[in-house]
Each structure stands twice: as structure tokens, then as C-alpha cells.
Here is the input.
Amino acid sequence: MATKQVNVKLSSNLFDSAESFAESYGYRNVQDLIAESLREKIFEKNSFDESFSEKEIDLIDKLIEKSLKKKDFADEKALLKALE
Here is the structure.
């Protein structure tokens, strides 16, 4: 998997707390803590059903787009409510 670098600005207090947390809980550094925190937030607590294939997601997107163009729903908000 390819990686990309990002820069994150943190207040001094937040950085100091993150650094202390990383040391206390065995992270190599604050960068590893941030990466793990993002993984937890995105993948472990993600309510998105990842069992759909890319093709299925594309078909769903096209259906929504066509429904909006045909004005089968008043607006996108009404469409999303109908899909709940």
C-alpha cells in the first residue's frame, strides 16, 4: 500500500499531551499515535457497510444521480431520508 505524507498542526498543549500519551502507551512517536487514532476512527467505528463492491457502489451512485435528475424526489435531502 502506498503512503502519503500529511502535515498536522497541533497546539503546544495538545502536542505535549499526545507525546506523553505516546510514551506512556508504547507508541514510537506522536505520528504513530495519530495514524492509529485515524485507523480507529475510520475503520473500527465506521458504520459504512464495506461489503459492497466498487461496481455496486457505482451503480448506487448512478441511481441516486438519475433519481435527482428525474426529480423523483424533491431534493437530495428527501432522497437520503427515503433511503434511511
Q: What stands out?
A: DSSP finds four helices and no strands in the chain. The two ends are 34 Å apart (CA to CA). The chain has a mean pLDDT of 81.
